Write a sequence for this structure.
């Protein structure tokens, strides 16, 4: 058994988990998986991190290019994140003939093709299981076990921060601001929560999942994303009364030979397997033409869960080195499916709005919807006071384009005081 | 790309699904997975099955040994099941240097070591994803993605027949006999339901999962199994009142360096991820030291779901042939953990019994439990009539050995009319 030499760039949350797992289990991996993986060199801008992890000074550098240039190193683990220097480091490592393991969702979602082409050109592996769903096995199962399927849809709760916030809003009636403050206090949300609450993190992940599921490259910029900032406890309560929960879903479906992909708050039937996924947990739901419905559930973030996926990938690379089959399964994007405009979406819509409390209002609003071919499935009017009345409409299935046009016109009605939340309602 | 030639033995439910998938997707697999798999020969005792599938006469034989002896065939798919001729065919195929894909849980649970040794000796693959959980990816994820973990426990709902029956009993109050009759009428249960309702099917599956999870061989005969015949709607209703559901769980845990393994009806907290898995669905819940909690959910049986797993394995074998890395990951049972006696189990117990409706009964029964060191957590007494009273005890954590001794003594009390169901209550 030869020793596979590993360089690690980035000693943050996930990197420290990787050091920990390799420290505890290196001998187990040799015995159980037949591979000997040795962490020989680590790089981080902050030497204090290496000290805190007890790494010897000789195994540490503040210059990541030293790790990439080290001829002894077989595999580089990139855990810096982002599309700046991380991209340069990954491409340089691949060009140097080293396999790469990364947790970098932004890189894979924006530059996946470039990175995978570079790996193929050098005949090495690029594995990125940790980029989606933390430690949850999902990329491996889709590229291997489920490869026998024509995947019809892949969708999931892939952002733990927003799922925690929505769970707190649903279970204890917190409003958005309080839920965010609590998530930040618990370390589940960052000081600048934009990437999470605006759905950008989820958009990168679904771009990666869709590319694998449909064998057709989808990039981050092709994914329309709406976040959860506009949701209120009232919306969640209305949803509950109608038998739904509200989740920030990342959705990708194969529709008429094209890809329907998007991230937005979604009203989902309470009986759907994804509806019970609460707190910081993630789950990815995959429907294939043979396997039917499947779901993969677990902790979507955190040091050790994500490191579990990174080290799983590392062991797989080591097996490929041991058996001489590097670049074992590379890029699988052999098709070229079009990505649909979200305006072409057909679904139901929940619309909450504030109107004047006077006769004829319901008829006026319904008339506008009707003139755009949007029919109303149900109307709820609860409270009315001197400021007017709150009305909730749920449409029958309609095109997003028609609903948007109708809403623009409804907003201009004299009886409309304020437009509230609009949420897509899906029977997925 | 070379063509990988496949022989299929067994054209029953799963076999016909395999024929269907290869028929529809062979060109997709060549394009997307880079392997060309051709089904060249099928065997079944019943020629009518081949005709129904539209297989040409030249590609069919009633003699499976012809498939195994065919020098053109690279991979044999064994879908006969059982440990009789199936074992002989699998060993003969491996000895002839052919890789084998099988869905045979009985074979792998009873003769796994023999079969895996034979594959290693010939330097070929033996893959069996379909043996557990139908199409749900679980063996692949455990041998690859989760290989970085020390698995603490693996447990699941791995028998769809009994889960369907328990769901019907819970949701509509059916008794055992009616639930079984309905499952048989719908084709979810066989005319002889023994393997399902007595937990033997689940026992084979957890033996396989435990062997992989703990890297230590566990065989079918080492798994104590209790089925669901003794459960009544009353038990399910009591469970619900206490915040539990009753599931037939297959459980394997690593305890003090040994393996605790068993199949039995289990009272599980309603908030546990497995508690919401209803109907014919299966789910496997795995806890690892790094990944934390994960769960894998899907259809546990059926022609196409199981065939999805078989063809997934076949494509993996074809990739190994293409890349020259057969016997890629063979047997991973490198440890030798002891299997614990179930009498050493420590958990809580639900005990339903019928007693005389007279003063002092509760004290008498509690006294017996106490004399065996078993303390009672709660007591429910609901109905009493001329035949006596029904009492439900839930113990605090106690050893199975002590509880059994106590129950034997309780049964002999003069006030005891009849012992009812005993169910393990687990906070897993």
């Amino acid at each position: 058994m030869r020793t596979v030499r590993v360089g690690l760039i980035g000693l943050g949350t996930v990197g420290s988990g990787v050091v920990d797992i390799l420290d505890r289990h290196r001998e187990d991996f040799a015995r159980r998986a037949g591979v000997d993986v040795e962490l020989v060199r680590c790089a981080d801008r902050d030497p204090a991190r290496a000290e805190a992890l007890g790494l010897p000074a000789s195994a540490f550098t503040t210059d990541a290019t030293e790790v990439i240039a080290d001829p002894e190193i077989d595999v580089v683990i990139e855990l810096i994140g982002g599309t700046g220097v991380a991209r340069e480091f990954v491409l340089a490592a691949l060009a140097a003939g080293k396999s790469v393991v990364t947790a970098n969702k932004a890189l894979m979602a924006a530059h996946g093709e470039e990175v995978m082409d570079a790996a193929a050109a050098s005949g090495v592996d690029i594995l990125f299981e940790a980029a989606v769903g933390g430690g949850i096995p999902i990329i491996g199962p889709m590229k291997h076990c489920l490869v026998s399927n024509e995947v019809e849809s892949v969708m999931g709760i892939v952002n733990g921060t927003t799922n925690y916030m929505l769970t707190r809003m649903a279970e204890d009636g917190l409003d958005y601001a309080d839920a965010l403050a609590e998530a930040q206090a618990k370390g589940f949300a960052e000081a600048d929560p934009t990437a999470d609450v605006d759905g950008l993190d989820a958009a990168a992940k679904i771009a990666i999942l869709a590319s694998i599921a449909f064998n057709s490259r989808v990039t981050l910029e092709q994914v329309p994303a709406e976040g959860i900032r506009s949701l209120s406890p009232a919306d969640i309560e209305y949803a509950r009364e109608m038998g739904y929960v509200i989740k920030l879903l990342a959705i990708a479906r194969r529709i008429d030979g094209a890809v329907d992909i998007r991230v937005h708050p979604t009203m989902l039937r309470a009986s759907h397997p994804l509806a019970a996924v609460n707190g910081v947990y993630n789950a990815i739901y995959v429907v294939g033409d043979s396997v039917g419905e499947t779901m993969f559930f677990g902790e979507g973030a955190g040091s050790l869960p994500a490191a579990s996926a990174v080290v799983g990938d590392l062991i797989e690379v080591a097996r490929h080195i041991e058996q001489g089959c590097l670049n074992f399964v590379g890029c699988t994007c052999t098709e070229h499916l079009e990505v649909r405009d979200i305006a072409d979406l057909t679904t139901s819509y929940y619309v909450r709005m504030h109107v004047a409390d006077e006769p004829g209002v319901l008829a006026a609003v319904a008339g506008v919807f009707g003139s755009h071919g949007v029919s109303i499935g149900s109307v709820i009017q609860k409270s009315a006071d001197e400021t007017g009345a709150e009305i909730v409409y749920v449409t029958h299935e309609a095109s997003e384009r028609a609903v948007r046009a109708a809403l623009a016109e409804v907003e201009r009605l004299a009886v409309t005081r304020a437009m509230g939340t609009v949420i897509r309602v899906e029977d997925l």
Q: What stands out?
A: The radius of gyration of chain B is 24 Å.
